[in-house]
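User: Quick sanity check before I run a bigger batch. Here is a single chain. Can you write out its predicted 3D structure?
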Amino acid sequence: MQDLHFTAVDVETANSSYASICQVAAVQVRAGRVVDQRTWYVRPHASVADFSPRNVQIHGITPDMVHGAPDWHASVGTLTGLAGEHPLVAFNTAFDKSAIRQACEVSGLPAPVNDFHCALALSRRLLQLQRHRLPDVAQHLGLGAFQHHDAGEDARIAAEIVLELARREGASHVEHLWPTRPAGASAGSAASKYFSRAYTASTQDLPKPSTAADPGHPFHGKHVVLTGDLESMGRWEAMEAIAAMGGTNGKGVTKKTGVLIIGDGRRSVTAIDLAGGSSKERKAYAYMAAGQEILLVTEPEFLQLTRRS
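Assistant: Done. Predicted structure follows.
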C-alpha cells in the first residue's frame, strides 16, 4: 500500500447548524500507515456559537472547553496543511464535508479543494452488514473499542476501516477504493458502471431498506425518489443512505411515491415550485394536486435526516 495516501477527518458541531464546528480531528495516512494524528477544539463562528443540550449530550463538549480555542479560520488552515495535496476521507462524508463547507461559508473562506471520499459508502459497498454505523463496522472488522463521537477517536477508526478494507481488497491507491471516472470511459467499462449504476441498475437492484432502521424515521416504509444532482454525494451513495433509514428507493415518481428529494442546489421548495421543474417534479406536482401526500426534502434537510447517530 505504498501509494495509499489520505487524511481521515472528523468534526463535531455545537448545534444543529453544520457550520458550528467545535472539534476537529485529522489522521494522516501516508504509504498505508498512520503517521500523524491531531485533535483540537474549535471556537465556532459567532453566528452559530450556541451549544445545544442535545449536541453536548452526544459529544460532551461545552462552551467552556472551546473558550480560547482557535477559530475556524485557523482550524481550516491547519486541516488543509495536514491534508496537503492528498484526499480527505470521512465516515459519512455527507456530514463532514458539508460541515466544513458551511463553516467556511459563514467565515467567508474558500472550502478545501481536496477530493473527499466516504468510508461509510465504501463499507456499505464492501461489507454485508445489517447496519453500517461506525461502531458496527469497527466491531465487524475487529478494530477494538473506541470513544464514539470524540472527533479524534472517530477519525482514527475511520482511517483504520479504510486501511483494513484496502488490505482485504488488495488496494494500493485511493482510486482502487473509490475509482474516478476516466475521460471517455466506454459504456461497458468497470469505472463507467461504478459511477452510472444508480441510473443503469434496475429498480430491484437498488439498495434495499434496512431491517434495522428506526420505524419512526420519515423515510421508513416510504417510496423515496431523487431528482437533480446532490452537491454532497453521488446518487448511489444517497440511495444507500435512504435504504439505511428504511426507505424504498424508486427511479421514477409513481402513485407509491411518499418522499421526493430535490437537489440541484435548491434550499427551499414548495409544491407550486414543482409545476415548472423536472419531469419528476411535474409528475409529483400532479399527484399532489390530486391529493397524494409527498414529503418534499431539500439537500440540507436530507443531510440532517441522514446524519450519523
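Residues 181-195 have pLDDT under 50 and may be disordered.

User: Great, the batch can go ahead then.
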